[in-house]
């Protein structure tokens, strides 16, 4: 059987020193024909990609600074959605059908997966995934929304619930709240019944964060024009009747982390989610080592009896696969009932993939950024 078509895919030829350099120098659009289905297997599903999320991890991977690296040349695009063009017999037995609208689980297929499907990224007209990774969309869900679900909400859930054990009535301080995972964390924390104090560096972005459910927003931009953040412990104490917060969700790192320890109540939980402010923790070009790693002062952690919890969602899931089904079940329940909905501020046509990556890298995006194919 032949499905003939010609499209394009993004190719990262080699890891760059950093993502900004990768965008300008090692990324290109190359022609691709429809994969030959005679060469695909019974578990395979061929997908015409419609929307792909442009995520922070996609950026980090281009310089090999993410912990899990496909070998270049590779096609980025951890999460995408589209229409089924063809499927093998086993996939059909599991309910996949031609024409179906689907989204793809980035843990099981694409550049962040571990096996044979790693080469099929979503920044491409066509992708192939095993049926286990192919999830049917439901009525009312758009292609754009579908590619912004799993990574963001699973991260937020893993951090807040599995690691943070956030309880109704507690107050959580969420940094990077305008980001893809941060905004998901704001939404989930509210569904859990927590009070949310969200931080950011732009009043416009924080207005959206507030509209998405945050109880309080704090602009913590530096007052001296530097890239750092200002002192904000008094603001947090004032919002918590002097007690401080029970939980910190820190996807930003750097100065913000140390200031946050001062905002916590005794016995609080500090969640290390990421370090958006210091992306070059690891060497570029795929080298290992962490010359610029973030550090936390042990005296504050000790005297306040804090629990500091590392929250690597994917790695934890590989260690303990059983944590995933209940997480997916709860997120899907919230999504299908309309209680969760991804916020997408930026959309780009495929030809403008560099502009999309630049927008994400320079922090212009609120929530998620999507590429249209
Ligand atoms: N733990 C996990 O399993 C997991 C999973 C996915 C991602 N991550 C990590 O979590 C972090 C956030 O990911 P994301 O996808 O949400 O990223 P994102 O969408 O780019 O959002 C990051 C947010 O951080 C804020 N920020 C960026 N630079 C900053 C700086 N210098 N100072 C203060 N705030 C800054 C920005 O908000 P404002 O502009 O409003 O300040 C931005 O919206 C990344 O480090 C990522 O690698 C972790």
Describe this structure in words.
The protein has 373 residues and is of the alpha/beta class. It folds into two domains: 6-149 and 342-372, Medium-chain alcohol dehydrogenases, catalytic domain (Quinone Oxidoreductase, Chain A, domain 1), CATH 3.90.180; 152-317, Medium-chain alcohol dehydrogenases, catalytic domain (Quinone Oxidoreductase, Chain A, domain 1, Alpha-Beta Complex). The chain is built from 13 helices and 15 strands. The protein has helices at 19-26, 56-61, 89-93, 143-146, 150-163, 180-191, 203-211, 233-239, 255-261, 298-303, 313-319, 324-336, 353-361, and strands spanning 6-12, 27-33, 44-53, 80-87, 101-104, 126-130, 134-136, 171-174, 195-200, 216-219, 245-250, 264-272, 307-310, 344-349, 368-372. The strands form three sheets. Strands 3, 4, 5, 6, 7, 14 and 15 form a seven-stranded mixed beta sheet that branches. Strands 10-9-8-11-12-13 form a six-stranded parallel beta sheet, sandwiched between helices. Helix 1 runs antiparallel to helix 13 (353-361) and helix 5 crosses helix 6 (180-191). The longest helix has 14 residues, at 150-163. The model has no long low-confidence stretch (mean pLDDT 96). Bound molecules: NADP nicotinamide-adenine-dinucleotide phosphate. NADP nicotinamide-adenine-dinucleotide phosphate is lined by residues 55-57, 155, 176, 178-182, 200-202, 205, 227, 229, 251-252, 256, 273-277, 311-313, 363.
